[in-house]
């Protein structure tokens, strides 16, 4: 082994031997990055930091030409060549989804760099020429990992900004449609006929539209990618679903929508978000279900949760679409049986349903065959005081 190779191995070996101490120090620092770090476990705080260190060690042990060094100094060379996605890129994506801002993520690399060099200098004492060369190569590797993270973080944040704007427009479309339909109905009512029920529906829809807008704006201000925020309060989900279906029947006069509620479905839930999800599932059933058939809605208690199912008859969902069914801004190419139900859909309805279910500690499942397609979202119970 040449003197040059020995020099490059020194710091790499030290990092390997002290990886746990370095990562523990980085985890402790990351825990101070509030509010984003407040909800993360120890494993989530560490995230891909150990793999980033592994990549740096591998990089330190590779020979490097002056041209390669120049490319890396400009952020143009990945730490590990031919890797589809580096640890630094994945780390950035997960930090963006967890609600970190870019300054907080960059500060993690500063802390990681400082931790390694501080512990190493304590070990080696004064820095000789070999140590200085090791330090320069290490700093290049940290800078490259940082460049990869910043690039991916920015792309992920931009993606969620686009999703937010699309969700905002999507959420407002349903309530606004009900407001317009009810307003048109009121305009046709003759003098002297009662309008109390229609006016109340108009007011409820307007208030719900305002609540959705306020909630989405709060969501945007907090952190993009942390999921949809919910506000739990005591509610009878059967009553909330009946109110929503009244609005949907007005918007879908040609569709029969049946509701069956069994057992106790009261609890602490975000009624507005549940109604929003129900509307998305019913509109999805109306859009893709067989024309002239009924849409069935069922509410029932299950172990520690409430199950909300929406089913329709019609063609099954193609298997190739199932994997990406809940992805935002995607929409399968299925011929719509009813062209009046919004062929300009952005493909956000099922994404919103999934996010609302996850925020309630539940999830969404879909079954689809030649006879029937059913979406079932579960909403975990939580008392109002929890």
| Poorly predicted tracts of residues | 1-9, 332-346
CATH-level-2 architecture of the largest domain: Orthogonal Bundle
* The CATH C-level class name of the largest domain: Mainly Alpha
Strand order of the largest sheet: 2-4-5-7-6
Extended strand count: 7
- Class per helix and strand makeup: alpha+beta
Strand count, sense and barrel status of the largest sheet are: 5 strands, mixed
Taking all Cα atoms into account, the compactness measure Rg is 27 Å
CATH topology of the largest domain: Globin-like
State which percent range the strand residues make up: 5-15%
Determine the number of helices (DSSP H or I, runs of at least 4 residues). 13
Mean pLDDT: 77
Count structural domains: 2
Which key terms come to mind for this protein?
386 residues; alpha+beta; Globin-like; Heat Shock Protein 90; 2 domains; 5-stranded mixed beta sheet; two-stranded antiparallel ribbon; disordered N terminus
What is the secondary structure topology, with strand pairs?
Elements: H1 3-17, H2 19-30, H3 42-46, H4 49-60, H5 66-73, H6 87-98, H7 102-124, H8 129-188, H9 196-222, E1 233-236, H10 237-251, E2 257-261, E3 266-269, H11 271-288, E4 295-302, E5 305-313, H12 319-322, H13 349-359, E6 363-368, E7 372-380
Parallel strand pairs: 2-4
Antiparallel strand pairs: 1-3, 4-5, 5-7, 6-7
Helix pairs in contact: 1-4, 1-8, 2-7, 4-8, 6-8, 7-8, 8-9, 8-10, 10-11, 11-13
């Amino acid at each position: 082994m040449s003197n040059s190779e020995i020099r490059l191995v020194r710091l790499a070996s030290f990092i390997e031997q002290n990886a746990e101490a370095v990562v523990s120090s980085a985890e402790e620092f990351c825990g101070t990055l509030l509010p984003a770090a407040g909800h993360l476990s120890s494993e989530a705080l560490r995230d891909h930091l150990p793999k980033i260190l592994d990549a740096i060690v591998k990089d330190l042990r590779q020979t490097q030409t002056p041209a390669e060094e120049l490319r890396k100094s400009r952020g143009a060379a990945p730490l590990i060549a031919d890797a589809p996605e580096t640890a630094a890129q994945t780390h950035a994506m997960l930090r963006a989804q967890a609600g970190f801002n870019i300054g907080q993520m960059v500060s993690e690399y500063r802390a990681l760099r400082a931790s390694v060099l501080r512990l190493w200098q304590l070990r080696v004492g004064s820095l000789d020429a070999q140590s200085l060369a090791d330090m320069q190569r290490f700093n290049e590797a940290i800078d490259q990992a940082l460049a990869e993270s910043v690039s991916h973080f920015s792309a992920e944040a931009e993606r969620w900004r686009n999703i937010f704007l699309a969700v905002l427009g999507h959420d407002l479309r349903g309530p606004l449609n009900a407001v317009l339909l009810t307003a048109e109905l009121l305009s046709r009512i003759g003098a002297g006929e009662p309008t109390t029920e229609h006016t109340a529906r108009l007011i409820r829809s307007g208030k719900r539209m305002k609540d959705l807008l306020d909630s989405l704006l709060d969501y945007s201000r907090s952190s993009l990618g942390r999921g949809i925020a919910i506000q739990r309060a005591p509610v009878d989900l059967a009553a909330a679903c009946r109110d929503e279906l009244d609005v949907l029947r007005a918007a879908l006069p040609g569709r029969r929508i049946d509701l069956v509620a069994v057992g106790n479905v009261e609890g602490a839930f975000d009624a507005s978000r549940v109604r929003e999800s129900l509307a998305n599932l019913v509109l999805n059933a109306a859009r893709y279900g067989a024309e002239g058939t009924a849409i069935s809605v069922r509410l029932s208690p299950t172990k520690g949760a409430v199950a909300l199912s929406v089913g329709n008859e019609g063609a099954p969902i193609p298997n190739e679409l199932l994997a990406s069914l809940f992805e935002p801004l995607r929409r399968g190419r299925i011929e719509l049986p009813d062209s009046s139900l919004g062929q300009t859909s952005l493909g956000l309805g099922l994404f919103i349903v999934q996010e609302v279910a996850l925020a309630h500690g539940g999830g969404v499942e879909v079954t689809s065959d030649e006879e029937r397609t059913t979406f079932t979202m579960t909403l975990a119970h939580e008392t109002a005081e929890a």
